[in-house]
Amino acid sequence: MADQVQVETNRAGADSRQLLRASGLSKRFGGVQALRDVSFSVDRGQIVGLIGPNGSGKSTCVNLLSGNLPVSAGEVWLGGELLTGKPIDAVVVKGLSRTFQSTQIFPEDTALENVMLGCHTLFRQGPAKSVLRTASAKRENLELVAHAERSLALVGLAERRDQIASTLSAAEQRLLMIAVALASKPEVILLDEPAAGMVASERRALAGIIRAMPSHGISVLVIEHHMGLIMEVCDRIVVLNFGQKIAEGTPAEIRNNQAVIDAYLGHRDHA
Questions:
Q1: Cα–Cα distance between 21 and 40 in angstroms, integer?
Q2: pTM for the full model?
């Protein structure tokens, strides 16, 4: 019996610090091997970066983790529970949310209304109670509004709650997308190119937002081309090239890893 318990523990991940775990992830598109046997983890309270040149497999990896693509081989675990094969909405309910490279918001809705839509997985009242506006439905709606407001505050958009999303700046729209992802109360959030199009001051503000997430119980996997941001906020960095993991370590270790320098960073002064 003890042996059986040990086997189950090992399958789910023996290290209790590991929250999100990719194990041997592979993806093939016809004759193209986009990702091959990639394994890494995001520990509780940690910010992990995923970097690599264009075409290295980063987007494929994120799509496999979030359930946007089915795996060809390998497994994804979250908090000891297997996510592989689950639909996207089930993955979100289990505690994994994500943003996308392109801004995806409802432009004609307010910032608060956008974030409220991100709360849909939290609704407990059925449609009938919501339509009839029962006391419990009203109470739940007030709770979700308060939660949505906290999500906006976390990304610095509290004062924009009633502003139409299309009138926000490009950087604010990207922050709004993060707030929508936070609204589902994730344990892990995947940030896909969050700094795209941001100027230096906006990236500095974003860095502060990302660094604050672990203090709110949210671990982070961030995929980003801007190496200054990655080096500033991440505890560990995973590097992909040609669909395979070529390195993993602290920012200092990655900055001085010759394989990473050759594949992605260039000479050391550029890192």
A1: 6
A2: 0.86
